[in-house]
User: Which sequence fits this backbone?
């Protein structure tokens, strides 16, 4: 189908374009961006983007779909609806499913289930070790063939550093990226909140910042030694960010991301034991949060992810320490990016890069036009009204997970249309 | 960036009245003194021929103990009975929870039994908050919650009875130097004491212990509280008016936190020699049960400066004060 998106403000971070103009889609491709339609282009559908911003579809580097194994928390259908409503057209799902994504068959099944019109592109992250147990390597070549875009451990650390080094060496052999969270399993043991004044006051067992920095120093050294392409997931502390900067200064090519929660919240948001603030890694101090926000703005942090983790009410309505970790986020990624851009005075073209072109680069898909509005790029787009305000509520969230600290918060930035592969995956309004 | 969401404290109703006692944090100096004042006449009740007043007659108090405790449960039971309430004791860790029933399912069931007050002990910090918030959500706003100890977080009636004891012996909080000695990290008692001491205007509060038993950021854990960290017990006790020793739990004694009870006693155990550094009229307190020869020497525990048994007696009066005060407030317009 040929679609013209007109009257919008087109922002394409990859090219730096920020201009009032039109985007033309034919089938699964973008065929033109500009004032006049390509030759022979007869629009069969038109999207009026007056007052709206047209940008590449969002790319979320961490979103749990809960399949297989946790269908009572969420299903592919519910979370794909959430992704589309959030303007997310491509996402990476971590391997902490049940069973974990450590067998090609599981990955193929997930890819197959997700291959439906209107569903976001799903890139499974394969398990680095069998069962995420940190002992035996997975069949990475087979898993990559089945569709894994990277290998990681979700929230589980590889305790045995010899196994970790060998896993990195093996991945580096095939140039497979390794995506890991920096968290020392021993130093985080028993902890449920940032080891700071808030945890001390509330009597919550602390996870110290050194749990991140000690593990991160190990990861960076091993990446240097093995030459693996390392992406550090879900950074949480200012000290961790400094280690990343220092490693880059010596020439190490390493990328990293943070979550929307760690960008906006801190340990004080635990309030009176609010289990929505029970996250992994823990929400750290306000100074850490502000350092992460600045790092995301200056590009030291490459990408912002939702770390979408739908959790059922039963698992959240527990005393803080016993509540399951995680927060729903697919539908909050865009508005929270906009809130951060506004608060830090960042131009939208730069802010949106962290959820479009930058994650595409980390995925190694930038050359295919992913995360951009280039001619020939996949027709994955998001049209949103940056001024429209809404209140986050259980009823409004399409995700099966209603668990987020942002419930009740008023945010700006409402998605009007989401286009995935040229299909209208989500429309807040009727097509003209 | 965003302003922080200031959540409503669930222990107050919208009129700012105390409807649950979950923590001493956020209580005013006036309300602390009001509770202690209310406890005064209750100490006399215990000395009467008939040890009962009818303030809670016809009310049902449920002791919900998700964690074992004989002493605290008993003192709450005595306090409730002296107020003429009906008391039902539930040891949940041996009943519902073992069968897989969730905390809030248990609460729903007990709420349906027309309870008037829950006295809650739970191993997890914050559990009584969850219960109080849930009661508000399901509309059982007439049920009051008293925290009888949650994880490492809070044990407010213990903190209050400690303040009652200090006030009884020392009168003016604003002239005192208080030393809290021992395992502050794992102690809900210590956290309640620190909040109470700070609110009552104690100008110097010392936390005394090895680094493994004090929280990181201990000095910052309570905003604007005059907390001073002492790793040397001599420095911690010198010139103190009140010495509050904390219980060292068995599971902390030998491992990565402490090498042995002997070494702990040598460094931090309260002996007559160490106590001699405090003021001559300093009082020695302990929340019980004591480990003699670990955190406290028997000579001190049984000595003239110890007020450990009066603490127990005052504890019943303070718990009567808390329960009768809460029963007189309405949670009707709680959040």
Assistant:
């Amino acid at each position: 189908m040929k679609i013209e998106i007109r009257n919008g403000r087109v922002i394409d971070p990859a090219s730096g374009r920020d201009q009032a103009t039109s985007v033309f889609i034919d089938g699964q491709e973008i065929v033109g961006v500009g004032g006049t339609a390509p030759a022979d282009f007869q629009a069969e559908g038109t999207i009026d983007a007056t007052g709206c911003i047209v940008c590449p579809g969002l790319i979320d580097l961490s979103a749990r779909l809960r399949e297989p194994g946790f269908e009572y928390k969420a299903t592919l259908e519910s979370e794909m609806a959430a992704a589309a409503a959030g303007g997310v057209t491509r996402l990476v799902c971590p391997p902490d499913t049940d069973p974990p994504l450590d067998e090609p068959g599981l990955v193929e099944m997930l890819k197959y289930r997700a291959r439906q019109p209107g569903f976001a592109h799903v890139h499974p992250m394969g398990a680095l070790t069998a069962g995420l147990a940190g002992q035996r390597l997975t069949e990475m070549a087979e898993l990559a063939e089945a569709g894994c875009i990277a290998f990681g451990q979700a929230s589980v650390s590889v305790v045995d550093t010899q196994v970790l080094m060998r896993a990195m060496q093996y991945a580096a052999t095939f140039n497979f990226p390794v995506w890991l969270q920096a968290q020392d399993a021993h130093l985080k043991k028993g902890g449920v909140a940032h080891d700071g004044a808030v945890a001390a006051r509330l009597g919550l067992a602390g996870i110290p910042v050194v749990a991140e920095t000690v593990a991160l120093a190990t990861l960076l050294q091993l990446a240097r030694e093995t030459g693996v392409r390392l992406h550090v997931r879900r950074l949480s502390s200012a000290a961790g960010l400094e280690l990343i900067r220092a490693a880059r200064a010596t020439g190490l090519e390493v990328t990293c991301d943070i979550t929307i929660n760690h960008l906006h919240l801190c340990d004080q948001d635990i309030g009176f034991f609010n289990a929505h603030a029970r996250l992994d890694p823990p929400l750290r101090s306000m100074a850490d949060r502000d350092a992460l926000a600045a790092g995301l703005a200056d590009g030291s942090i490459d990408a912002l992810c939702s770390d979408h983790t739908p959790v059922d009410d039963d698992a959240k309505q527990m005393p803080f320490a016993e509540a399951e970790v995680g927060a729903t986020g697919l539908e909050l990624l865009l508005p929270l990016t906009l809130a951060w851009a506004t608060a830090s005075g960042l131009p939208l073209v730069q802010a949106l890069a962290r959820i479009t072109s930058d994650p595409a680069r980390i995925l190694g898909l930038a050359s295919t036009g992913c995360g951009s509005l280039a001619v020939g790029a996949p027709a994955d787009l998001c049209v949103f009204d940056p001024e429209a305000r809404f209140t986050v509520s259980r009823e409004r969230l399409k995700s099966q997970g209603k668990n987020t600290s942002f419930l009740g918060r008023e945010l700006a930035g409402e998605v009007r249309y989401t286009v995935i592969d040229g299909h209208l995956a989500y429309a807040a309004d009727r097509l003209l | 960036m965003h302003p922080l969401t200031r959540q409503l404290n669930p222990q107050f109703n919208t009129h700012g009245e105390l409807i649950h006692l979950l923590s001493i944090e956020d209580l005013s100096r006036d309300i602390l003194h009001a509770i202690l004042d209310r406890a005064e006449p209750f100490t006399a009740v215990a000395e009467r021929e008939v040890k009962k007043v009818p303030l809670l007659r016809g009310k049902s108090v449920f002791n919900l103990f998700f964690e074992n405790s004989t002493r605290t449960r008993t003192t709450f039971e005595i306090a409730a009975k002296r107020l003429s309430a009906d008391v039902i004791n539930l040891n949940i860790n041996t009943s519902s929870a073992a069968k897989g029933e969730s905390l809030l399912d248990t609460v729903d069931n007990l709420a349906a039994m027309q309870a008037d007050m829950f006295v809650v002990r739970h191993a997890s910090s914050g559990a009584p908050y969850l219960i109080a918030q849930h009661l508000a959500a399901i509309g059982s706003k007439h049920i009051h919650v008293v925290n009888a100890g949650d994880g490492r977080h809070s044990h407010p009636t213990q903190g209050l009875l400690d303040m009652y004891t200090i006030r009884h012996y020392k009168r003016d909080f604003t002239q005192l130097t208080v030393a809290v000695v021992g395992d502050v990290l794992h102690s809900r008692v210590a956290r309640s004491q620190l909040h109470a001491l700070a609110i009552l205007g104690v100008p110097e509060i010392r936390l005394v212990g090895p680094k493994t038993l004090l929280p990181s950021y201990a000095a910052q854990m309570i905003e604007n509280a005059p907390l001073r960290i002492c790793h040397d017990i001599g420095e911690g006790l010198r010139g103190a008016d009140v010495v509050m020793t904390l219980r060292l739990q068995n599971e902390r004694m030998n491992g990565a936190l402490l090498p042995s009870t002997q070494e702990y006693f040598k460094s931090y155990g309260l002996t007559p020699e160490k106590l001699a550094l405090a003021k001559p009229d300093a009082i020695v307190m302990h929340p019980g049960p004591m480990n003699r020869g670990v955190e406290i020497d028997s000579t001190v525990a049984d000595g003239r400066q110890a007020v450990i048994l009066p603490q127990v007696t005052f504890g019943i009066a303070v718990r009567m004060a808390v329960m009768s005060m809460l029963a007189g407030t309405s949670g009707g317009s709680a959040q």
Notes: Chain A has one domain: 57-368. Chain A has a mean pLDDT of 96. The CA atoms of residues 123 and 381 of chain A lie 18 Å apart. The interface with chain B takes residues 195-197, 199-206, 208, 264, 266, 268-269, 271-275, 289-290, 293, 314, 317-322, 339-340, 343, 405, 408-409 of chain A (CB under 8 Å).
